[in-house]
Amino acid sequence: MRRSFLFTIICLAATLFAVDTLSAQAHIHRSEFICYDKREDAKSDIRTSIDKYLTVAPALQFESDEGVVRAVYEQMFEVPPAWLDYNAYLHIENVGADYTLFINGVQVSAPQDQFTPADFYISPYIDEGANLLAIVVVEEPYMEYLDETLEQPQRTQFENSYIFAQRRLAVYDFNVRMVPDSLDRFAELHLDVIADNSFDTDETIAIGYDIYAPDGKLMEYSVNDLELAPRSRDTLRFRPYIYHSNPNRWSPSNPKLYDLMLYVKRSSILWEYIPIKVGFAEYGYNDKGEITAFGKAITLNKSRYNAAVDRATTEKEVKALKAKGINCLCPDYPQPRWFYDVCDKVGIYVIDCAAISSPTDSGNRNVGGTPANAPELLDAYLMRVEAMYRRAQNHVSIIAFRLGGDSSGNGYNMYKAYELLKSYGDSRAIIYGGAEGEWNSDI
User: Fold this and answer.
1) In this structure, are 414 and 307 located in the same domain?
2) CATH code (residue 210)
3) pLDDT number for residue 427
4) pTM
5) Comparing C-alpha atoms, which of 264, 382, 393, 261 is closest to residue 340?
6) For residue range 296-322, what is the model confidence (pLDDT) as tens digits?
7) Residue-wise burial string across 397-432, b where 16 or more C-beta atoms lie within 10 A, e elsewhere
């Protein structure tokens, strides 16, 4: 078994920002999902039967009140030989502090904010047999400056953190919408599936889906082949009509959801089931500064709200807010995936928000006067904004995206963050209250 890399990590703490190109690519931004080996497990989120899935719960090894490194958590995990022919991913959340990631003594990430669940591609860092994962809690002034007013409940540490492996020919990400067809007669499913080929040879992947109406009726299904060049990704697009769908238009008063199952098929064998809840909705905004649904302005009764310690408590509180007439929640930072699931199910709008809140010196528009106008922090801003968008983009309850807290200043970094989200072509509004009339806010 490997010895602890604790002292190596402490020695490396002074170089936490010197992450090489490979490490920079380890932190990935995509929809938050795992793959199930069986359809029935996918429908019920049963993870115990997933062959290549490990729970992550590192144990405390070191802590201090001084210096950059404040704590080190470690966990040994075994990688069977079969895993080496797969792509391994690590999902981390609920650390309770800002951190950086090491595997087998190698720094995998730059410092990560504690509020945004993160995913990492870790195959280049693991070996067959025993491996050491280390979460190094760091205290960097600039990290605290970016999220100085944010607080979250103390959930079970590392809750919902895990490692799972996908085949080297697999679904890498997906984007799904149900929107009205051009004549507004029924829904058209827009399903874009990004496939990944990690082999050194040309490969063909068969990607399929089926979609069931809220009443359980099968509405559509298809399986298509996609040819992929070596070491490449490409997108397979499905655009079927979903008939008799207008009664199922999603809204807080009618929160009906379709069940879509995405899967991979090869040599007549089905594998890697990915379950998705889909709502029929179309959001935008008008020149009056109003958010729209199906082209009509929505009257919003908003409430600032962040998820409670667990799903059950959150669902109870969200229902209570809805009963009081609240129809839109405004969290302060990206929430656990189950928060968006609850909002989709209960029927309440969400304006999502990146983990950026830096009111101190927010009015100082000199270069570096406010973090929003400090070019050296651009990557941190873009990382937080992209992570917010990618991991929750497919949830029907999300009607708009906020760049950060309203009192976080404005400048170069916020301009670039707005441009990044606009480049995705999403019809939903991008909002920033701190823009104060400048161009980097749609409403």
Assistant:
1) yes
2) 2.60.40.10
3) 97
4) 0.94
5) 393
6) 999 999 999 999 999 999 999 999 999
7) bbbbbbbbbbebbbbebbbbbbebbeeeebebbbbb
